[in-house]
Amino acid sequence: MGSYPITAYSASNALGNTTTEVVAALDSGRSGLRPIPAEFGIAGTCGIVPGPLPALPSALGDYDSRLTRIAQLALDDLSRPLEAARKRWGADRIGLLLGTSTGGIYESERAYRHHLAHGTLPAGYSLERQHSLHAGLHVVRMLADLRGPSYVVSTACSSSARVCAGAMRLLDAAVCDAVLVGGVDSLCQLTLKGFAGLEVLSPAPCRPFSSLREGINIGEGAAYLLIERLGDGPARLLGVGESGDAYHMTSPHPEGLGALLAMQRAISAGGLDPSEIDHINVHGTGTKQNDEVEGKAIRELLGPEVAVLATKGYCGHLLGAAGATELAFTVAAIEGGFLPASVGADPVDASIGVAVNVARRDFTTRYALSNSFAFGGSNVSVLLGGPA
Amino acid sequence: MSALLPELGITGVGLWAPGFSDPARVLAGDADAAIRSPKAELLPARLRRRCSLLTRITAEVVKRAAAPAGVDLGAATVILASVYGEILTTGQLLQALAEEPASPLSPTRFHNSVHNTAIGYLSIATKNHGGSTAISAGPATLAMALLEAATTVAAGEGPAVVAIAEEPLPPVLAESGGDFDALAVALIVEVWRGQGIHARLSRKEPSACDALPSLPAKLAANPCARAFAAAAAIGGGRGRQFALEPTPVSGRAWVLEILDEGAAKAR
Questions:
Q1: What is the CA radius of gyration of chain B?
Q2: Distance between CA B263 and CA A277 in Å, rounded?
Q3: Is A317 a catalytic residue?
């Protein structure tokens, strides 16, 4: 695998509409979690994009959805770097790989309610343009004006970390000279009530890796990373490790086998030794079992000293957008020379036996891992480095 | 820089739809009314009964493609591609949300609604700890699945099993997306080493491409119909060049070329 500069990044989530707001909140340790709005029909805590969410341009108006609006919001910050990349490489040579798990389910929920009440689908609803995974892909491709290969990865909560693996393969095979990777998910009843059904939702703001953790909060948002063959940027993409637990649809392998394999493969793809990892952005959902198993794998591979950063206390678990969002956080930490607080982690669960970073501090990261694990035992770990 | 994609060997082709499990019979338009339910033998019997149609047809074609090629499914990279994924299970959840808004959802239905459900169950059944994936690209789904396979084997991670599957829509969503039958195809993709069907993937003007075989209306309406027709043509030895997607605005589409005349005749 090659090593590719990440020349720009962006994020919109509960911490703010713009990347600047998101990074400032991360720097100040301010959580964006808040009560779930009444329209979602379930009590608890979530991470909602503050908004307002501007409408799509009229040429894309048929594709209007909560998802495509969020996708557009986070793309705004990248218009200049995308223009430069198009000029440098040509739009044909720039790929687009987007992770999402929800697609436009939010609109289909409304469509089903309308159908139940009136016996027909609502005006303006189309399965292809509102519900489908590729609707969001189409909108981002048109807004970013990219004409290279483009597809959606949908492996639940590892979707938008896995896109980095596809991007490296497209760059390594010289099919593309740049790839815009990203993730987008919107809040919807299906995921909120689905996780409620699994009995893993925390009613209060989530506290990953804390002894007081009670489960997860669901969040929404979008994040992008522009990865180029050459260029200057705040960080580099050095390797991606993918693995399967081959164990259970929702429970992690009890020994953390899949997590360990993913991290090992990422480190080895980057030609590094585990001792060289300075910090790790954990999957850290905040359930008792997930954090324990991930901690075990980290202890075994990286030892008890590596700085562990859990960021879902800021904006919740963004599911299909979690990977790209936490990669954006990792790049922001590398670029800013700091390690954010793992908000909500204090008091840390000492039994997990890893060094959770509870307070913001200045910190130089040469190499970092970001983990994303998903239903179906689908694991991805991404290795990032500082600028060359 | 021009692409460095390796020449490919397609060492296995499998397909399944109601009435069809053999490429030659698809080409002949000769449906077998006895083919109504996929066996899905890769999945344990107890699990099979609880799995969605999409997961079962995926398991069915993966076995059909992999078994003759002797592929170790525990060590392969499986690339599942589908436009709407586990849409029947998703429809059940959407119906439940509309009808019983106060109730939590069935946890089993919920985790079985993710796009990578079939990959999860297949990885458990075959003890596969590799990095399998689940993708979607609308009308370019076949092209992007094969591109992902080509770059995967180029990176030395292989063989790749491309499984493309699409189940019918639930009635409410069919009002928008149409009424069509299930279908699934699987292709085993390796770097060309003299085995299988010698092929090359490239992006070019699709003007020289062969017409894909026509399908019965209920299959032709499936969003992955192109994959089914292409798999029938490749597996049945008809045609030399296939456009893998509708032609984009650039005028160049992803195209699969069959390279070796002798091998094409022999298969």
A1: 18
A2: 50
A3: yes
**Nearest CA to CA, how far is B205 from chain A (Å)?**
14
Check whether B265 has a pLDDT greater than 80: no
Q: What are phi and psi of A312, to 5 degrees?
A: -75, -15
User: What residues in A contact B171, CB-CB < 8 Å?
Assistant: none
Gap between the Cα atoms of B190 and B240, Å rounded:
19
In this prediction, residue B2 has a pLDDT band, given cuts at 50, 70 and 90, of: low
* Residue A169 vs residues A243, B66, B230: alpha-carbon distances, Å: 16, 24, 25
Asked if B151's CB is within 8 angstroms of A132's CB, the reply is no
What does the domain layout of chain A look like in residue ranges?
A: 4-385
Indicate if A131 belongs to the active site: no
Residue A68, burial from CB neighbour count under 10 angstroms (0-12, 13-18, 19+): buried
CATH of A4-385, picked from 3.30.420.40, 3.30.1050.10, 3.40.190.10, 3.40.47.10, is 3.40.47.10
Mean local confidence (pLDDT), A260-275? 98
Establish whether A157 is a catalytic residue.
Answer: yes
Task: Tell me what ipTM this predicted complex has.
Answer: 0.97
- Whether residues A127 and B176 touch (CB distance < 8 A) is answered with yes
Band the pLDDT of A61: cuts 50, 70, 90: very high
Question: What pLDDT was estimated at residue A309?
Answer: 98
Bridge pairing between strands B253-258 and B241-243: antiparallel
Task: Residue B87: count other Cβ atoms within 10 Å of its Cβ.
Answer: 27
B5: chain A residues, CB-CB within 8 Å: 173, 175
Q: Do A378 and B132 touch (CB under 8 A)?
A: yes
Amino acid code (one letter) for A348: V
The burial class, CB within 10 Å (0-12 / 13-18 / 19+), for B46 is exposed
Has residue A326 got a pLDDT over 50? yes
In chain B the first and final C-alpha atoms are separated, in Å, by 35
- Please, are residues B134 and B116 in contact by the beta-carbon 8 Å criterion? yes
Domains and their CATH numbers in chain B: 8-266 (3.40.47.10)
To the nearest whole Å, the CA of B159 is away from the closest chain A CA by 15
Q: How far out from the chain centre does Cα A363 lie?
A: 22
Say which of A157, A164, A206, A315 is annotated catalytic. Answer: A157
